[in-house]
Amino acid sequence: MPEIILSINAGSSSVKISVYKTPEDTSSLVPVQLAEATVEGLTAPPAKLKYERGDEKIKGKELENVKSQEDGFRYILDHLTNDKGLPELNKKEDIHFTCHRVVHGGDYPRSQVIDKETYFHIEELSDLAPLHNAPALTIVRAVADILPHARNIAYFDSAFHTTLPDYICTYPIDQEIAQKNKLRKYGFHGISYSFIANAVSTYLRKPADQLNIIALHLGSGASACCVKGGKSFDTSMGLTPLAGLPGATRSGSIDPSLMFHYTHSAGKPSHRSSEKMHITQAEEILNKNSGWKSLTGTTDFGKISSSDRHEDRLAFNIFVDRILNYVGPYFTKLDGEVDALVFAGGIGEKGDKLRQAVVQGVRCLGFAIDEKKNGTAIEDVVTDISSGNAKYKTLVVQTDEQLEMARGVLADKDRFVGKK
User: Fold this and answer.
1) Do β-strands 231-235 and 213-218 pair in parallel, antiparallel, or remain unpaired?
2) Which residues are annotated as catalytic?
3) Which partner for 13 in 43, 89, 379, 403 could form a disulfide, CB atoms 3.0-4.6 Å apart?
4) Is residue 239 a contact partner of residue 185, using CB atoms and an 8 Å limit?
5) Each residue of 291-342: pLDDT tens digit?
6) What is the DSSP letter of 163?
7) Structural domain boundaries in the chain
8) pLDDT in tens, 81-139
9) How far apart are CA 139 and CA 73, in angstroms?
């Protein structure tokens, strides 16, 4: 009998769930997708449902009384079990595995079954990523209550980067304090980078352990990663997802002293602090009230890209410039042995103007794109947009974190449930 896997991705204002079943061929590591549901707008009610299953599509259905991640999860679960076109999932007991994307996993090098110990470890790390681990933990708690029979597994965005060399992940501060407080570069978007590395390795028919790429995960949260021999060698995010590239509401890297000049109450608790989430005013300002939103008034990068307003052009140019600050150095860290520059994430996939500007900025390294290929909507998992005379490839990857987690369940099943 096929087993049902739910891949759960809880954001600060949304819950996205992909439903998979295990393949009939037990040696296959490719789960079969059955449906996908998203509840978004939790912080700007009314929440809305987006649902796809085969030919059935629901978009923008307004939901009453759905205000939290837990509400969203319960609503989706009811919707799935009541969907007559989804016979594989008639009742909650049909669900065997639930995977959760957890942003900060500290030193965990791989996924973990969530027991009391793991749960408290993730909770402790919430102080390092208060805006990111808290939503995931809300769902983890809800799932443990609602689906006690399912195997609950955490996949960490930081796990892919546990291969960073010590001289890259160490901050030059007092090491006793750094080790005691777990202060080091962790890096994030690792589930996405893992998917990207696998997809590009397959596409180029090159063994993963020989793959060298410069990968850009560009969405409302954005980061860069230097993948050397299939492993993370350097990445732009740091102790938290705030470091590195700016995003929709994040500042990215700034002079650390800026905050003390910005507000003298930087270290005081933010009004969003609660019993479950400890967050300072500085964290709230830099994570929630900065980035393109602060420059342009919108978080929609598509609108920013197509506008001629000075503020929008400034935000666009800042983003391109900060991306270039990583591509060149990562190219040298790979000693010029680069299989591809890879764009992924919502903006990476849809932002043809941004891709063009970035590649133009590193043309001296041997990258060039074909304008026609770059201007065509991306449909495949991996699309080559390089021009014929380019020395190095430029690829666009439609990353899929939910699929990467579900694949992980198939690959690590013995570790999660024991060998039969």
Assistant:
1) unpaired
2) 157
3) 43
4) yes
5) 999 999 999 999 999 999 999 999 999 999 999 999 999 999 999 999 999 9
6) G
7) 4-156, 205-397
8) 999 999 999 999 999 999 999 999 988 999 999 988 888 888 888 777 767 787 788 88
9) 7
| 278 annotated to bind ligand | no
Is residue 9 annotated as involved in ligand binding? yes
Q: Is-contact 287 130, C-beta < 8 A?
A: no
130-188: pLDDT as tens digits: 677 877 888 888 898 999 999 999 999 999 999 999 999 999 999 999 999 999 999 99
CATH homologous superfamily for the domain 4-156: ATPase, nucleotide binding domain (3.30.420.40)
Chain mean pLDDT for the chain: 93
For residue 370, give both structure tokens: 């074909």
The response to whether 218 counts as a known ligand-binding position is: yes
Question: How far apart are the C-alpha atoms of 144 and 142, rounded to whole Å?
Answer: 5
| Token pair of 72 as six digits | 């969203």
Contact 211, 201 (CB under 8 A): yes
3-state secondary structure of 382: strand
